[in-house]
Write a structure and sequence with these properties.
single chain; alpha+beta; Immunoglobulin-like; Serine Threonine Protein Phosphatase 5, Tetratricopeptide repeat; four-stranded mixed β-sheet; four-stranded antiparallel β-sheet; 14 helices; 57% helix; 14% strand; disordered N terminus
Length: 389
């Protein structure tokens, strides 16, 4: 019986030794959580994820003092995260637990946000310090490397874009329209989302077409119109694009469409509406569209009665309709003489002043020497000078 009793006693001692060893492998993590306002955060969830093997530990929350503790963790390496309103507010990985006292892991969300902002700024400019890089998590390093690659690609793209755009501008200035078209086409291939590039390409095509004839001219104009359409699609509220598109349409003999675009330009930019219609009139004159030009100048005058050049140009369109009576005297349409007089009154020293005076002499047989400026200040009627005896 004695040997049997000894075996039982030995087994009991061995069990106690194993139990003590198991208890000795348990560790803990504790800490405090402060919010962005520097105050303790109550009720924040603490998520603990084991990194050296699979394991997730939930349930710990901060008390009213912002304190938490999680006991009963096996010795290992963990990632500790603070969850507030269902979102990860901050985290710390590669936390190694130890026997004995809990490992302190505190979270200061205000300081963390400031560090994160500094890290993002440094990453965006590629000026990370070694300490910042060492302090990055795996996810942050991956994000930084991705951002660095994107920045490098963007810089290369911007250089190609700027080089092509500048080459196009230089070619336009030198009136080398073929080279300008090629450069701006390349720029659109680098970045098709910039309206200014399409606007410049459109202008270069229209200038290229002006230097050609026949089918080559038509083809260049059509490409220019297409480019203007893309510029407007990207920036439909730009009155200048509608104005330039209208002038291009006139070159391609698409008068109704041009008038429609000028109307849009005038609606978008009422302040300069008179100028848009004047520009249209000038282009229509050059295109031999006298009646349409007259209507454009009339609209410019209607919007600004003091638009001197519009008065003169409208008079010119009317002179084209003048007839000669049986006595050999020129008879212009009604209002023509008044339009010429209005121009001289508004711009007595203007570039068309002498031409207007010559036409008035021809039409009236004489020329008055003074014209009243409609913008001049008027004296009060009925005022009399006092006399003394």
């Amino acid at each position: 019986m004695l040997p049997k009793t000894r075996r039982c006693g030995l087994f009991a001692i061995t069990s106690l030794l194993f139990t003590g060893a198991a208890i000795a492998q348990i560790s803990a993590i504790e800490g405090d959580v402060k919010g962005a306002d520097g105050q303790p955060v109550k009720g924040a969830q603490i998520l603990i994820e084991r990194q050296d093997m699979k394991g997730v530990y939930k349930g710990a929350k901060t008390d009213k003092k912002g304190h938490y503790i999680y006991n009963g963790l096996p010795l290992g390496t963990y990632k500790v995260s603070v969850i507030i309103d269902g979102k990860t507010a901050d985290s710390m990985d590669k936390v190694k637990t130890q026997l004995g006292d809990p490992v302190p892991i505190n979270f200061d969300l205000k300081a963390s946000a400031q560090q994160q902002q500094a890290l993002q700024q440094a990453a965006a400019t590629g000026n990370l310090t070694k300490d910042q890089e060492r302090g990055m998590t795996k996810e942050q390093k991956e994000a930084y490397e991705k951002k660095a690659k994107e920045n490098a690609a963007a810089m290369a793209k911007n250089k190609d874009l700027n080089d092509a755009f500048n080459a196009g501008k230089e070619a336009m200035a030198a009136k080398n329209y073929d080279a300008a078209v090629a450069a701006f086409e390349k720029a659109t291939q680098v970045d098709a989302g910039q309206h200014v590039i399409w606007g410049q390409l459109a202008e270069s095509y229209m200038d290229q077409g002006g230097a050609k004839t026949g089918a080559d001219q038509t083809a260049a104009y059509e490409k220019g119109l297409d480019a203007y359409g893309k510029a407007i699609a990207l920036k439909p509220d730009d009155a200048a694009y509608h104005n330039n598109y209208a002038l291009a349409l006139v070159k391609d003999k698409k008068i109704p469409e041009a008038q429609s675009e000028l109307t849009k330009a005038a609606e978008l930019d009422p302040t300069n509406a008179g100028k848009y219609y004047y520009n249209l009139g000038a282009v229509l004159v050059n295109a031999g569209q006298n009646d349409a030009a007259a209507e454009a100048f009339k609209k410019a005058i209607a919007l600004d009665d003091n638009y001197a050049d519009a008065h003169y140009q409208y008079a010119i369109t009317q002179m084209a309709k003048a007839t000669v009576d049986k006595d050999g005297k020129i008879q212009p349409p009604p209002g023509t003489i008044e339009e010429l007089q209005k121009y001289i009154a508004l711009k007595p020293d203007g570039p068309y002043a002498q031409s207007a005076k010559d036409m008035l002499t021809t039409l009236t047989g004489s020329l008055q020497t003074t014209y009243g400026n409609p913008n001049a200040a008027k004296t009060k009627a009925g005022s009399k000078k006092k006399t003394t005896n």
